[in-house]
Amino acid sequence: MSLAVGVIGTGVMGAEHARLLRCAISGAHLAAVCDADESRATAAAQGAAVFTDAHALIASDKVQAVVIASPDATHADYALSCLAAGKPVLCEKPIAATAAEGLAIVQAEVALGRQLVTVGFMRRFDPAYNDMRRARIAGSIGDAVLLHNVHRNVSAPDWFTGAMAVTNSLVHEIDISRWLLDAEMITAQVISAPGGDPMLVTMQTETGAIVSTEVYMNAAYGYHVHAQLVGRKGTVEMAAPTRMLTNLAAAQSFTFPANWVPRFTEAYCLQMQAWVDASKIGTTTGASAWDGFVTTSIAEQIVQGMASANPIPLSFPQRPALYA
Hints:
Layout (H helix, E strand, L loop, with lengths): L2 E6 L3 H12 L4 E7 L3 H8 L3 E3 L2 H6 L5 E4 L6 H11 L3 E3 L7 H14 L4 E3 L7 H12 L5 E9 L9 H20 L3 E8 L6 E7 L4 E7 L7 E8 L3 E3 L8 E3 L2 E3 L6 H4 L1 H16 L6 E2 H17 L6 E2 L11
Parallel strand pairs: 1-2, 1-4, 2-3, 4-5, 5-6, 7-10
Antiparallel strand pairs: 6-15, 7-11, 8-9, 8-16, 9-10, 11-12, 13-14
């Protein structure tokens, strides 16, 4: 049976999720699309049902599962509606605009007694990150003691503040670091260059491992994500983000993408297929609602403590048994 999926939001990510469901995913089909801009929704739907009211799409008997790719401020409302309807949901990050809203989703899911929410931290499906995690688990590099992350964008608009570099960009490194190390972050410290960009965020885990993350929103040369995991016996890191090298004029080179979509196209596809497969058998995969809440909470606590030169202690409620 093909899973009927509705997509809410048809911006960059919503349009890409709709395309994947139309063209690249087995066992599911694009059943409906919603956007406040009906013409944009129609263009993404390509024959699927079109809605301008997200709650109507969620309630529709034409839709069995939902992808939320609408503006961040709407995520919590729509995710809670999906839980009330008993429908699996893949929610683009962040799970909610605030940690309090994220915790409300966790509490609603706990009350329901089953996990239905997957948060779209697609890096968990990226082959390079998976290879690094397997290397750590296998013990080939010894105990992991240090993780270096680099997150560089070509440019950011003037309204993209230092806080947004944490809440919109660093969140990916927060989640992937927790997943790579299988450990929780307990402290964070931020040092910024003049003007606030780039910034270096150093976190420490409950196991004593150190996580350093450079976030550079105006690196100019391209979109560049890199990670190196350091163990007691050796290291493992990403290779150059390319499948082709050019030898020309006495130099070897490759190109960087302009944004995250080309870099993580494969990860988005693998994430969607895994989510569809899990939804059809009543399970979840990838980052949970709890993971989404913790990541948002860490980002929120970092922003609140950014002005301090001292380490920021991080704290969370006890993890519910549902997410054990």
